[in-house]
Design a protein that fits this description.
- The chain is an alpha+beta fold and 370 residues long.
- It folds into 3 domains: 123 residues, Sulfite Reductase Hemoprotein,Domain 2 (Sulfite Reductase Hemoprotein, domain 2); 107 residues, no CATH class; 88 residues, Sulfite Reductase Hemoprotein, domain 1, CATH 3.30.413.
- It is built from 10 helices and 20 strands.
- Helix 1 packs antiparallel against helix 8.
- The radius of gyration is 20 Å and the shape is globular.
- The protein binds iron/sulfur cluster (SF4).
Amino acid sequence: MSVVRGWCPSAHRPMTSGDGLLVRVKPRLGWFTTEQVLRLCDLAVTFGNGFIDLTSRGNFQLRGVSEEGHAELLSELVEQGFVEADPEREARRTLVIGSGLVYEPRTVDLAERIEGGATRYPLLPPKVAVAVNLGRVLNEGVAGDFRLESSLEGLILRADGAELGRPVTLDKAVDALVELMEWFLATGGAESGRMRKHLERVALPDVWQQVRPKATQGVPVPAKIVMGVLVGVPFGATDAAGLRSLLQASEATHVGLTPWRLLRLAGAGDFDVPGFLTEPDPLQNVAACPGAPACAQGQVATREVAWALAGRVGSLHVSGCAKGCARQAASDVTLVGRDGRFDLVRNGRVGDTPEKSGLTGAEVLELLTA
Ligand code: SF4
């Protein structure tokens, strides 16, 4: 198994991290049954180190899988219906669902159509995603290059980075998606890698820029919701034992994965399980990737600093290296690991020019909490 850097890890092409391979498992239409999650917990323990990430694309990621065990894990995942047997087909499953905190038939209908149309999609750069974000107001923090969103006039398809989108009907949404994907590739999108970056150098035709999406309302927080409970997973990091306890205590029937490191527990009652948040908490505003030593590319440890700064600096992103896996959006404070020290970016994202560089963890704490 080769090490593939710069790719989102998948079940077929896992990325190597400091603790082994990362094997990504994507829910169908954003949901797993409780039974499926329990089976994934078993697989995480049998083939990995039991740690499970909830990614910013609303997927689970099993950590610490060995090179030798990967083939057997993959065949279990395929057999149990979690992963497509065909790697290209699996690679086309890029849906990120940012709406549907209450039962939202239009979101389900659209998501089914998008997943159903996947065989028609051209093969896109590995990080490209399709996002669905519908509702009276739109949720923030839903990453996606091809964005199906609500506008005041109905459904639109918007290229990420453009302010306006093109009106589409539900019936024609997949056709429009294919058309925009083909435009992206025909104009050099494969070299750009992402739509937002692509639009910095290529003009999007006017036909794709007609209608503004609805306003956004911020990122959801842990709370009781109509269908159950929205529960926070600090840093998106948990393990098989924690998830099992959560499911048992909450009596949830289904588990929805979201882009905000929140789990939707359908049918859940009251519960209190260590390691999970059921109320708004400053930790929800903090993104921190595993960093060093868990990730082989990590230049610094991330989570100690993140715990220490949670609730003290506004929104915070601590990134183990310049790749910025944990958050693409801007934060009030972004710390980026480089050669064992931190670069500090204010009101920006990984990749923006740092205000200060080469800070130790102690210097960061002193500077930001003085
Ligand atoms: S951002 Fe974090 S998780 Fe991503 S490669 Fe760098 S250290 Fe690893």
